[in-house]
Design a protein that fits this description.
Length: about 500
């Protein structure tokens, strides 16, 4: 996974020539101090780079144009230390291509009661300078995040942290490539969509490759490579007795290792950041890829099954956002419900391909029949996930727009043995409650495929949706169905007019 510290967010402070060199020098010193503080803060994962004070339309346009073409710059933080007449910003904002955060702060936390004079007031004008800037951004209908408060407050720092991570994920999507082996699962609606519209909106491409291309890569893997990877399996996982050396199903593990190596080679050679396949389109493969997919997701690749190409992109984005954070982000599917009135919850899983980074303890490597796909019994990692705050996120194509749906949930520690269910097992309770959350999810058109995140909050995804300029729908402890339905209707009207 990439290191976010290689990325930059440019800190741009607005002013004007009216104040003279002494005041502008003070403003520059203050801006440098804030930018350095943010950059050095352990919570913020990227570099915050001070840029010289901008005082007129030409300087604003030049700075924003440079940001647009910088490979390192993933977004801009703007702050109006003094008053900065907003007409100066129109030309620059008109060409802005990077995510924007407006920091509404001031250098001093407190009013210096005994010392305050008009010189102090002329310098520290954020209270109305930021309002002037805010107006022109709203007038130009530019999406941005506004963070208000003293720049050293932990709440302010955390909101900036969340936005920088969302901006990094958006940057990662630009020019990203995702591969679709075969086509969508036949007759399924929600996992399909408009790939051209997605590339125009999101910046990533999705293209189909024949399974034969992947099989050719798998067939080139050497026995020495396979043996080396199987040794890794033995070191990393608990192996069922029948897949250990000499076991009756050992060959299935060897075949799975060969698939993993071939698949990884294919992805690396093509520069892909994620992939999808379908059990209906795996001609020439001896078994469905199980452990291969689980391990590749753990290494940072996005994935979803059945030809679903939107969810791998979202899995990848969530992994980038959460880089360095404790917890995991994984492809997930709502599989079955526990409707006990006293303890309602969802069992999430998939046939084979749930990210092993969710595992609470060392996973077991097992081989079992699948009953679907018509292939040899596949190898997979079997484990239970841990509990704790989490969320499910789904990206869907509504025809005239994309919608990102998020449901906050409470992960539940697995207490049951489940001896006949040899897959990854994840349990959660949707908020505000099972019936409300599931009903709202269905009203919103949410998919059965999701990203299950243990370390992101809804604010990360909301910032990401704002950057992407797509609809964001949240289901959480505040959700009331009557209001939720109305909000969906209002949103439909908005996007019809927005077209």
């Amino acid at each position: 996974m990439l290191t976010l510290k290689n990325f930059e967010v440019w800190f741009i402070t607005g002013s004007q020539d009216l104040y003279g060199p002494e005041t502008l020098a003070q403003a520059a010193t203050h801006a440098q101090e804030i930018a350095q503080y943010l950059s050095d803060h352990s919570t913020i994962p990227v570099k915050v780079v001070y840029k010289p004070i901008v005082k007129n339309s030409e300087e604003i346009f030049d700075t924003i144009s440079q940001a647009n073409t910088s490979r390192e710059c993933i977004g801009l933080i703007t702050w109006m230390h003094t008053f900065s007449p907003a007409k100066m910003w129109i030309r620059g904002l008109d060409v802005l291509k990077k995510p924007l955060l407006h920091l509404h702060t001031q250098f001093n936390r407190d009013i210096p009661w005994d010392a305050i004079d008009m010189d102090f007031m002329n310098l520290n004008q954020s209270a109305h300078g930021d309002r002037e800037f805010g107006f022109i951004v709203s007038r130009m209908r530019i999406n941005r995040k506004v963070v208000t408060g003293f720049w050293q407050d932990e709440e302010v720092i955390n909101k900036i942290n969340i936005w920088t991570r969302a901006a990094a994920a958006w940057n990662d999507w630009q020019g990203a490539k995702f591969v679709r082996f075969g086509d969508n699962m036949r007759n399924v609606a929600v996992t399909d969509g408009d790939k051209v519209a997605a590339e125009m909106k999101f910046g990533f491409s999705v293209n189909t490759y024949a399974i034969g291309d992947l099989v050719a890569a798998i067939n080139k893997v050497t026995d020495d490579q396979v043996n080396s990877l199987v040794t890794q399996y033995e070191q990393c996982y608990l192996l069922a007795e029948n897949v250990q050396k000499g076991g009756a199903l050992r060959q299935h593990v060897i075949d799975a290792a060969r698939i993993e190596l071939g698949l990884k080679t294919f992805l690396e050679k093509g520069g892909f950041k994620g992939f999808t396949d379908s059990f209906e389109d795996l001609h020439g493969m001896v078994q469905l890829p199980g452990i291969a997919v689980q391990r590749l997701m753990e290494q940072g690749y996005g994935f979803a099954g059945e030809g679903d190409w939107k969810t791998p992109a979202l899995v990848r984005a969530c992994k980038v956002m959460a880089s360095g954070l404790k917890g995991a982000n994984a492809f997930m599917e709502d599989y079955t419900y526990h409707f006990d009135p006293a303890n309602m919850m969802v069992l999430g899983s998939h046939m084979l391909e749930v990210d092993a980074s969710l595992a609470k303890e060392k996973p077991r490597l097992e081989v079992h029949p699948l009953g679907i796909g018509g292939k040899a019994d596949p190898a997979r990692l079997v484990f239970n996930s841990s509990g704790g705050p989490a969320l499910n996120a789904s990206l869907i194509d509504m025809g005239n727009r994309f919608r990102l749906i998020v449901n906050t949930v409470e992960g539940i520690d697995v207490e049951q043995q489940l001896p006949k269910l040899p897959v990854a097992r994840v349990f959660w309770k949707p908020l505000p409650d099972m019936k409300t959350a599931c009903t709202a999810w269905i009203y919103a058109g949410g998919a059965h495929h999701t990203v299950y995140s243990q370390n992101l909050t809804s604010e990360y995804l909301e910032d990401f949706a704002r950057i992407a300029d797509i609809e964001f729908v949240k289901i959480d402890h505040h959700t009331q169905l009557d209001r939720f339905e109305n909000e969906l209707k209002w949103s439909e009207v908005y996007y019809q007019l927005h077209q």
